[in-house]
Amino acid sequence: MLTKRNDMKKLTFLLIIFLFGGIKTFAQMDSIVFKNGNYIVGEVKSMQRSVIQIETDYSDDDFTIEWEGIDKIYTETYFLVSLTDGRRYNGTIQSTESGNISIVTDTGETIEVTPNEIVYLDDLDKGFWNQLYASIDLGLDLTKANNFQQFSMRSNVGYMAKRWQIDANYNSLSTKQDDVDDILRNDGGIMGKYFLPHDWYPLASVDFLSNTEQQLDLRTTGKAGMGKYVIHTNELYWGFSLGANYNNEVYSDGVTPDRASWEGFFGTEFNMFNVGLMGEDINLLTKVVAYPSFTESGRWRADFNFDVSYDLPLDFYIKLGFTLNYDNQPVAGSSETDYVFHTGFGWEW
Q: Whose CA, among 10, 72, 179, 180, lies 20 to 30 Å from 283?
């Protein structure tokens, strides 16, 4: 009885596809069949972090569906498709009878892959704004004792194209209380990557940091190097990068002369999406970069970042973050380490 019911659902689904195919000049329709036999028709907007987003005419909000819960997918939408081995294509996707997915590219080529090989889908039909992504989260602490006030912010914006990606971020911390010097910290930067076959990419970035703990009025760094994703799936990625870095520092103590040096850098980054806890809405990111100096004997620095966020409805989230900067040869009277512990409420686009 259950088999007949599922067969009827599939027959109905095929009939709907046929009917929509006859009027596709009026509306672009994509369709998804779930593993339980249900289906949905609309416009697929993206798939990232193993979650696919589809827009329908009969709902004010987009539907989000776990990628592993999909049995078949048929699209007319034109996507940027990213695969686990680093290949990238522009085109449409269709499920095959064998359970794989065929990518029909803009050059007319057909590439067949397994569903697990697809890391990322993004709708190219909507143009520039659909390739843009951003997030911002804010934290505020107020205490009556000593009139304590602390404000923190983390933000980022990025753009993803077929062969390149650019990301910018800005973070700020300000603490004030009676009878104590203000604590200020600001950091940010911009990084560009160009994607090559087999998940290799050259990178270039410019970053800045200022903080009162290490008496840094401004540290400006410029990096250039190569990176590679060792693991790259729709659930996580892990990669390494290395290269050269130019470091210029201006201090706020009014005594220490400016320092400029050349450094190497070696870093690793791990990002896991939809961790299987609390409804699979937890995301984890950690990054470590070490900077051994080429021109200052025995000096080395390190940056460490750790963020964990929990997704809420309507693209809101709560975040817990930790950032650490280390310098084994700081200026006299300042600390080797500066760290920030951040809790915030945010929104992503």
A: 72
Question: 205 φ, ψ to 5°?
Answer: -150, 155
Whole domain around residue 237: which residue ranges?
131-348
The model's pLDDT over 234-256, given as tens digits with 9 standing for 90+, comes to 888 999 999 999 999 999 888 88
Rounded to an integer, what distance in angstroms lies between the CA atom of residue 156 and that of residue 168?
6
Q: pLDDT tens digits for 296-314?
A: 999 999 999 999 998 888 8
Indicate if 120 and 135 belong to the same structural domain. no
pLDDT value at position 21? 44
- Shared-domain flag, residues 204 and 241: yes
Please tell me the predicted confidence (pLDDT) of residue 12.
53
CB-based contact 172:203 (threshold 8 Å): no
Hey, is 116 helix, strand or coil? helix
Who contacts 140 (Cβ-Cβ below 8 Å, separation ≥6)?
150, 151, 152
Q: Are residues 193 and 120 in the same domain?
A: no
C-alpha to C-alpha distance for 301 and 261, rounded to whole angstroms: 12
Q: Which two three-digit tokens encode residue 70?
A: 């999909």
Boundary residue ending a domain (92, 126, 160): 126
Highest average pLDDT, of 84-98, 199-213, 331-345, comes from 199-213
Query: Side chain identity at 249, as an amino acid letter?
Result: E
Q: Show Cβ contacts of residue 16 under 8 Å, excluding neighbours closer than 6 positions.
A: 31, 39, 41
Distances (CA, A) of 129 to 123, 145, 186, 211, 314: 10, 46, 28, 34, 19
Residues 11 and 34: their CA atoms lie apart, in Å, by: 14
Same domain, 197 and 318: yes
Q: How many structural domains are present in the chain?
A: 2
Tell me what the mean pLDDT of segment 272-297 comes to: 83
Same domain, 142 and 267: yes
Per residue in 120-171, pLDDT (tens digit) is 898 876 566 667 889 999 998 888 767 888 899 999 999 988 789 999 999 9
Domain boundary among 126, 156, 179: 126
> Residues 6 or more apart from 281 whose CB is under 8 A from it?
274, 310, 311, 312
